[in-house]
Description:
single chain, serine acetyltransferase, domain 1, 5-stranded parallel sheet, 45% helix
Amino acid sequence: MDEYKLEQCKIKTEKAKEFREEIPGIVENLVQSCSIEDCFDHVDLEPMPSKAAVIDIIYMACRILYPGYFTNMRIDKVNLIYYFGQEVTAFFEALSEQITLAIRHECRRHNMACVNCDERGQEIAINFMNELAGLRRLLAKDIRAAYEGDPAAKSYDEIIFSYPGLFAITVYRIAHQLHEQGVSLIPRIMSEYAHSLTGIDIHPGARIGESFFIDHGTGVVIGETTDIGKRVRIYQGVTLGALSLPKDAVEQLRSEKRHPTIEDDVVIYSGVTILGGETVIGARSVIGGNVWITASVPPDTKVFMKKPELVFK
């Protein structure tokens, strides 16, 4: 190496050293920021639930709810009991651990009395798992609704493997069951993960009946207090939301019904916005595309926009 290149190498090394010497100061500033109330952090001996672990639990649940679809393992009648034994045991360990962390975090956050977090976490996990067979039957109805409602679907396998609407509904039904059992944080982590993948935002607190079908799905929003009946079909870009609230009214309305009710056998086409907790869409109604609704619709009603005039220049 000639003298010039050697000198250049020394300069680069010195510069790198100067930059690295700034790191302790940056670290000190970050440590100090954790004592400022305006910032958010969780610096505690007790960890919070892990987002990565919760996402893993979603896929573990899918392997149980749809055996044979999301595994490289060949499953037949000979090894089915072994397969379920392995999957269910691992699922119990992972789910109970995360539920325990969520319970413990809430207890410490609100200075609550001890509620035997480990035992409670295991109890909730077992209660949830006792619902898995019922969830399988409920999801089977959702799959059949998708097949019967979409002529583009060539098989049930195609729907299970590739339909974002079914994935969002699957995650919703898992999260909703945990939500109903009073589990904090975890249901929202699940639903927002599905939202990030599919563009379909279903709050785990919403109540949705059987044979629910979301076609295409991108841009669908279903709010926390929405009630949806049986055999409802909705398309992309549908919002079932709340009316805008003044800031000082938000807290008092957290536990109130703010989102609409959709009765049985309703079809809602793309781009529809339906708002308000007192808004009811009556059974068997059809809501045409791009309609904005803030008042109730009687049963057996068709609602649609007047045909616009096209102008060619």
